Amino acid sequence: MRFATAPAPHVVPQASVRLMMLTVLVALVPGLVAQVWQFGPGVLIQCALALAAAEAAEAAVLRWRGKPLAPFLLDGSGALTAVLLAVSLPPIAPWWLTVFGTLFAIVIGKQLYGGLGHNPFNPAMVGYAVLLISFPLPMTAWLLPAGVAPDQPDLTELWALIFQRISVVDGITMATPLDTMKTQLGMGAGLDQIRNSPLFGGVAGTGWQWVNFGYLLGGLWLLRQGVIAWQIPAGFLGILFLVSMACFLADPTAYPTPLHHLFGGATMLGAFFIATDPVTASTTPKGRWIYGALIGLMVFVIRSWGGYPDGVAFAVLLLNLAAPTLDHFTRPAPYGRKP
Amino acid sequence: MAGTKGGMSRLSAFHGGIHLENHKEVSSSGGLRICPIPPRLLFPLLQRYGRNARPLVSVGERVLKGQPIAGGDPAALPPSHASTSGFITAIEDRLLPHPSGLYGPCIVLDADGEDEAVEFAAISDYRALPREELRRRVHAAGIVGMGGAGFPTALKVNPGARAADTLILNCAECEPYITCDDRLMRHASAEVLEGARILMHILQVESCLVGIENDMPEAIEAVESELARGGHRGIEIVPVPAIYPTGSEKLLIRVLTGREVPASGIPANAGVVCQNVATAAAVYRAVLHGEPLLSRIVTVTGGGVPWPGNWLTRIGTPIADLVQRCGGYTQSADRLILGGPMMGFALSSDEAPITKTTNCILVLTAREMAARQPPMPCIRCGACAEACPVELLPQQLYWYSRSDNPERLADHHLADCIECGCCDFVCPSHIPLAQYFRASKSKLAAQRRERDQADQARGRFEARQARKQRELREKAEADKRKKELLRRATSTDKDAGADTGEIGGLAAPPEGPGPSRSARPAQHDETRES
Description:
heterodimer, A: two-stranded antiparallel sheet, 1% strand, B: alpha/beta, Rossmann fold, four-stranded antiparallel beta sheet
């Protein structure tokens, strides 16, 4: 009897790119819930906008490049980029800001490099950095967290703010805690003075700490699922903790507590969801440690002495650049070649 | 002191590996059945290293069971034996059990049903014989590694200057579905342990570790009760975790001894000789009973056969005959695989015969395999590197395979890849990595062969050039000498007794411009060559 042949192995993989991306999207839910709770449903509108823009952009470029649409539109990677960018934007960012950032991320940051798997830089962070540099004003207009301003804009108000270019009403937006701290420290205010602001409730700023707890929760679940490399968040958070602790102990009046760094800004989102993007991160065990640690260090440096209040996007992009070199110099010794 | 169960704490782990559904239950029950003599048996001449063995019989000849029918060339390759009596009806090209679907010369033996055997020279005490003689008996019995690699056992138990201190018996049947070693241990653990003692004696080692996967409780129990009967000094059974691919020789050595076989070395470099349990049983029968390797246990399994099980099968039995014993193929039989689902290769036809290394005939249905999705781009997730048991970076190798970069492939140690398919199995992008690596490896091997051939050709060319130069130079010198003699002869005629001319002649600059000028580079060439 005759049979068709095929190369070994004859059992097929269980994992898939789509499953991985969907798992990461699911893991974003706790952080997203915290964001909605603290800053209202604006972030969901941003997510929807970014998702629509991302899928449209992917479809257009894939068609232009003559690539099959279905496998790449459904792989979930564009959706993940869109959501990661959307949760980083102010909830009341005007629609064109979100759309422009997403288009830039997908078209320039990802597809022009060759699409899935070929982009050297994290596309969401490319989009974010471009927006932050080009449109600093709308990018820093964050809503006040629920703990500080109980009257969050409702859906109609949000709609007006996002789509009808109604100028932002004073009193509902304010700089983020990291931003405030940077500005105030720059103006010569002492840390104890700054901390009296209602923004600085809890360990790392009212509202923001909950968002970070949310992303930490999702990140830990991702680790359990085996979807992300544990060395990256471990290196990131470990170094951020060590360096901020050292500086805090050296001069508590000039440097905020390590908790402020760990649970402020985009720390947890960055450590578990952004730095761990496999395409742009280091792939060797040792390389991942170094990669994560250097991002953590860069985040601290930018926050403490740089020109921006938060540094996750820039730190990740800088280390994306270093990932191939890290891979080259941290290759593990194979079996039988151990020194 | 009979060996005891090794504590798990002393085991070393290897990097990566994967957990697979083992599907052992499909074939493991039902005991050992005996496959009857098929009407026609096939014995491929193709041996390791791509060499054909020399047939020792001619068409029309009657052969007896146990009679050598091919071998002797090259001498290191052990002979093949007729596994039943009958007539040689042809020596012709047939489908070989080979991954490339090759056809090659096979000895065709039509069984006469008598099963008449040659007389086997049994011995009672192997310790009375010199170890060299025992090794010769192993060789004459045609024994090769029965776990799949087929390396001549007589060579393997001769580690030469590299003294081994440990014998490892490999019973880590890590591929899913395969249960022939499990069955052998349940059925004939005494033979295996006797074989181990003989191998220990030949190798002069004091310690033997039987590595057996911990999901084979019946086999472990069988060995333990055999060990408890005593007399097996130094033999120890060590259950190892059932992680694929523990059964890979290098990895099992690491698990059991904590040592690593150096890259491009052999186990003896780590002080270990590793043998499959079936090989050990064959050594026992060969040394004590003088019986060549004539049959082996083959697992026939998978959803594509109605009655899976383990069969004691004569070497040379066509796969079709064996599958017939299991009720033929089911309607949904989709792929015929020689070996396991991870490393076995698919055959285009069941005409090919069972050989000494055939451990499993796996007939899978489409449902068991599931459809392979079209590959997506690599997302560098590193799952492959985490799974790789020899700690390579498959995602890097994949890039260099695709870009056909032999230097980088060598630099990333493609040659160390054991082709286990773990990377393939965990790849979320469904990239057929193992296939890429097999292709790149054979390409590199072909390039190396070509380079060697080119080197040889260049060497021949250079030698020829040098010879030509030398001949020219010698001719020039001869000419010169001739002229000199001629001149001297004429000068003696003119001026008898004056020999100043000789000195002047030697010191004089060369006369002919051609030969002497070409002689100089020739000399230069020669010094360079030496």
